[in-house]
Amino acid sequence: MGSMRVGELLKVAREVSGKTVRDLERDTGISNALLSQIETGHIKSTSFVNVVKIARALNLKLDTIAAHAVPDLKQVLRKMRDKA
After folding, report:
1. In Å, how far from its chain's centre is CA 30?
2. Is 46 within 8 Å of 38 (Cβ atoms)?
3. What is the pTM assigned to this prediction?
4. Which member of 6, 24, 54, 77 has the lowest number of beta carbons within 10 Å of its beta carbon?
5. Helices (H) and strands (E) in the chain, counts
C-alpha cells in the first residue's frame, strides 16, 4: 500500500466527513487558504497546534496522522532509543 501525505489524508478525511474547506475554516479558525495549501502539499509542514485543530474537527486520531507523517515511525523511535 502506498504512503499518503498528511495533506492528502486530511483532505480525504474532510471530504469523507462531508465538510468543505470553509466548514473546516469555521471549525478550526485556520484560514481556508492555509487549509488548501496544507491539503495540496504546497505547505509541507504546519504547526502541531494546527494539526491538532484539524484532527479534532475531523475526528481523526493523532496517531493516524503521525503514521502518515512518518511512515517508518517505529524505526525512527528505535534509532532514537538506541542512541540514548
Report:
1. 13
2. yes
3. 0.73
4. 77
5. 6, 0
**CA–CA distance, 43 with 75 (Å, rounded to integer):** 25
Q: Are 2 and 71 in contact (CB under 8 A)?
A: no
Q: What is the pLDDT along the chain (84 residues), one digit of tens a residue?
A: 345 678 888 899 999 999 999 999 999 999 999 999 999 988 867 788 888 899 999 999 888 777 776 666 666 677 777 876
The DSSP annotation for 51-84 comes to: HHHHHHHHT--HHHHHHHH-TTHHHHHHHHHHH-
